Amino acid sequence: MALLTGTSPRLQSPGLPATVNHARLWMSLLVTGFFAVGLLFKSFIFVGGEPVAVNYIFNGLFIGGMLAGLLFTSCYQPVGRTIALLFAFAVAWVTISSAVSGITMNYVATFSMIVMLAGCFYAVPVVCLSVGFEPWRLINVVSLVTIFLSLAMLMVAPGLTTDPESGRFSGFFLSVAIACNFFFLSTVLSIASALRARNNAQFYFYIGAAILSFFFMYITRTRSVLIETMFCVMVLCTFSPMRRGLKMLIMAIAAWLLVLGVVSGTAVSTGLVSLDDQLEEFRLADGSLTAARNRNWEFGFERIADRPLFGEGLLTKQTEGGTRDLQLGEGGSYNQIYDPHSLPLSLSVQGGIPFMLAMMSVIAIVLFRFVRRFGLVRALQSPDFVLVATHFPVMTLSGGDLTTLGNMVEKTFWILVGALEVKNALVRPDDPRYRVRQPLSSIFDRAPQSAHA
């Protein structure tokens, strides 16, 4: 993983316009292919059981192509020394954890984690920004495609849009867990795009997309994501530098109160919708938001207490804590009982407490550096910052797995974190130019070409 340090060069070489134009085309295709493979393999091609090796091979090929393209075009971008050292420590520590576990496949999982970090934290953000495209906008485009595919499936074959196990809406996606997160991303990023719309047509398109995405996300009946979505939208609208943001926030609150006060009230009063059924569908009837997680958390703490230093290996969720062989056939061997459903607990059972601290510190430091460079108000205007800063603590309660190459949701999260760090690396902490109202992508046009420029 090419994590370099030093003064940042330009991501585009002004002296080679023809080369850059061709590179922009095929590197854009590589990024698009990376997203397409991750979503199509998971949701359409391998629905009955994902051949893990095939998915990982294709992901590796796309990431390798992007890294080669960055090297060929000299568009590589340094990141912070502390971030590089933390990643190096995490990789070294989890390698030792693989040796301690005695499971050979944990070495393969470690290598795939390295590939995932090199691709998602580094290659995808740098490639996107080098061709003049904000990573969060690319994620928005991809998520909107899945929204419209979900709508088409709902109209043509509604039975295929429901998760057979939970009975909750999953749309285009294979599982509700993936679906609710992409509906969340689509809602928030569509609102962000609407705030930046250049004309009324764009504005109403993104507002419509956000409403549709929010509706799909709502019927997944996912509590944490629902709250997370509303919070992110409120922050982006509140801190928007344009008056449009305040108007959108007022309209959103009014619409939400209208839905709750009129539509829901009428449905409940007429018996069309049962309030008890709604509470049960959102798992609120038991009176505890964390009741479903308590057992997983307690089991996770017990396992961490047994192996606090090196954990049970990255594949602990697939090998039941290292007590069984890994199954690579259809359906895999994932056991949700061995998933603590908490990010710090999950990282700890995988690689031990030091591994967890290193990985968590990377994200925390990136967020801190972003605020330090751009200021709190400017940071809260940035969709990628708001998403990462909100989703990071939420994962402490709702879970997450930031070490696997196969999970598109977590790869998307690393892309957003990486985008923040690339921007951090291009701006000095005391530079006042980037605390004003302007697109953060403009920093790539103003970055110094060398330390002596």
What is the gist of this entry?
Residues 1-20, 270-280 and 444-453 have low confidence and may be disordered. It is globular and about 60 Å long. It contains 17 helices and no strands.
Structural domain tally: 1
Question: What is the helix fraction of residues, given as a range?
Answer: 55-70%
Radius of gyration: 22 Å
How are helices and strands ordered from N to C?
HHHHHHHHHHHHHHHHH
| Largest sheet report | none
Gap between N and C termini, in Å? 27 Å
State mean pLDDT (0 to 100 scale).
78
Low-confidence parts: 1-20, 270-280, 444-453
Q: How many distinct beta strands?
A: 0
Helix/strand-derived category reads mainly alpha
Q: What spatial form do the alpha-carbon principal axes imply?
A: globular
Strand content: under 5%
> What's the tally of helices?
17
Topology:
Layout lengths: L16 H29 L6 H22 L7 H21 L3 H26 L4 H22 L19 H20 L4 H19 L4 H16 L4 H28 L4 H7 L9 H16 L36 H9 L1 H22 L1 H5 L2 H16 L9 H18 L17 H4 L7
Task: List key phrases describing it.
disordered C terminus, mainly alpha, 453 residues, globular, single chain
